[in-house]
Amino acid sequence: MAGKKQFDMDTVLDAAMIQFWRAGYADTSVDDLSRATGLNRSSIYSSLGDKDTLFLRCLDRYTARYGDRYEAALSCAASEPLAAVRAFFGVTLERIADPELPDGCLIAQSAMAIPVLSPAVAQHAREALGLQRQRLRAALEAGGMTDQEAEVFAVHAAAVNQSLAVMSRAGASQAELLAVVEVTVGALSQALRTRT
């Protein structure tokens, strides 16, 4: 259409996602999103929706992008549950170490902001957080744990995964983060040995 500004939707959504990730939902204004995406306010509203709608799109984008990586990491859980869980944490550690990305995790940051989010956005953040636990539980069950054991370890591992993101924002070193992972993997190893 003549006179209408064209833009690449993937590039714009990535820029908005990074803005929300870096500053958080509450501290990101539509003007911040305009600067990050290069779109004016009216283009944001007409093409991407209001702030809540755009945030949900960004949260879904983030969840899908890293969810696919977590799924791939856990794919060997039936035969190698320890390697799968270590690879799961490896996805997080790799993301944290990437200098092109903000510290932390958009899902962890969103979960911490639930008190100031609208009910619909808060529910979406809870669901995104729950996906990690569900993935881990399914992988641990495939690796031979009972439903109850898998649930306990999945809750623990998901909590550790989120704490890695929080610790990275606070300046923890990669070595410190890896040490936290090793404690969890060691506990899982002990639990699996006890079963055999």
From TrEMBL:
TM ranges are none
Q: Does the keyword Kinase apply?
A: no
* GO MF annotations, alphabetized: DNA binding
Per UniProt, which keywords does this protein have? DNA-binding, Transcription, Transcription regulation
Output the InterPro entries linked to this UniProt entry.
Homeodomain-like_sf, HTH_TetR, Tet_transcr_reg_TetR-rel_C_sf, TetR_C
**Which residue spans does the record list as DNA-binding?**
29-48
Q: Does the keyword DNA-binding apply?
A: yes
Which residues belong to any copy of the HTH tetR-type domain?
6-66
| Taxonomy, superkingdom | Bacteria
Under the heading Pfam families, the entry gives: TetR_C_13 (PF16925), TetR_N (PF00440)
Protein name per the record: TetR/AcrR family transcriptional regulator
The species is Streptomyces apricus
